[in-house]
Amino acid sequence: MDHRIGTDEAEKIIKEYADMIYRIALHNVKNTADAEDIFQEVCISFITKSPPVCDKEYLKRWFIRVTINKCTSFHRLFWQNHTESIEDHTELEAPAQKEVMAELRQLPKNDRNIIYLYYYESYTIAEIAEILKKNPNTVSSSLQRARKKLKNILIEGGYNNA
Predict the structure, then answer these.
(1) Residue 70 in contact with residue 91, Cβ under 8 Å?
(2) Last residue of a domain, which of 75, 91, 107?
(3) Average pLDDT, integer, range 13-20
């Protein structure tokens, strides 16, 4: 039985998850051009692999997992690790948002992903463990460590919430 979806339905589904996919990519690769490239790769994977679309939660997790995997593959390329982000030289974000994003980007990739999934996508530790294919205790420990690291970055960096 062929489960391929039509172009209109695929476009509708991609639009529904586009912001989430892009944010995950941007948190991982740290610049807009590369995040856009990864977004396109995720869309192509969705269209070519046609995961089941009957379960929205499964589909959302599929997009998260594929996006994180594409980002991991991206980082494996040697030359990508030796480029400089255009965001380092331009003011593309609001000043307050840029400061917070800069602080988050100082965290290691795995910590950024766990923080993102927990706080921005409201996943539980058990759900994050399932998505990342890790032990829930490992995710819980990683989340606690990531919080401490972020707190230290915010305090040392002089971040002021006022």
Answers:
(1) no
(2) 91
(3) 94
